[in-house]
Amino acid sequence: GIQVEQSPPDLILQEGANSTLRCNFSDSVNNLQWFHQNPWGQLINLFYIPSGTKQNGRLSATTVATERYSLLYISSSQTTDSGVYFCALRAGGSEKLVFGKGTKLTVNP
Amino acid sequence: NAGVTQTPKFQVLKTGQSMTLQCAQDMNHNSMYWYRQDPGMGLRLIYYSASEGTTDKGEVPNGYNVSRLNKREFSLRLESAAPSQTSVYFCASSGGRDVTQYFGPGTRLLVL
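ok -> structure tokens follow
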């Protein structure tokens, strides 16, 4: 099955710093999403981005499908950005969304 | 518009007991999913339902059954709970042009 690898597994930042999270995948995809799981466990979808670049405030994401990776950029990080960031993707005609193991981000004040 | 709701929020079971986790969505989505999340892991798909009346196995279906009761509701049943099923369970839905999955708040299950 499709493999999803996220890096780094853990990241600690000072408030105001920028960061880049990476998601590598092993097969061509037609559905890639980024999620944020906050410290209370709630999962919130950030981007649906099978290809190209999208921006939403301080967050942006880029997927280069031909090279099988996606990047999530967080600029001017805030303590509320803390949590775990997951990428998840679907290959081919499958309904199944496969998740990476996540990047745990801690933003210190 | 409540989105995806799950009940209960928390449950403690003894080994061998049964229970049903309930999930409902009010977004008129066709597809619904059940995941489990274990410490240090991403989410793993247990079962999904692409439309009312259909269900399919995901990555980790053993020990679980599901029912797509109608378009809104998708339940997950543990017939004989085992300690290995201690986890956080998430329900999600997606549908139409929007292929994004929307998640419920989760159910924390502890099996003793």
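Chain B has no helices and eleven strands.
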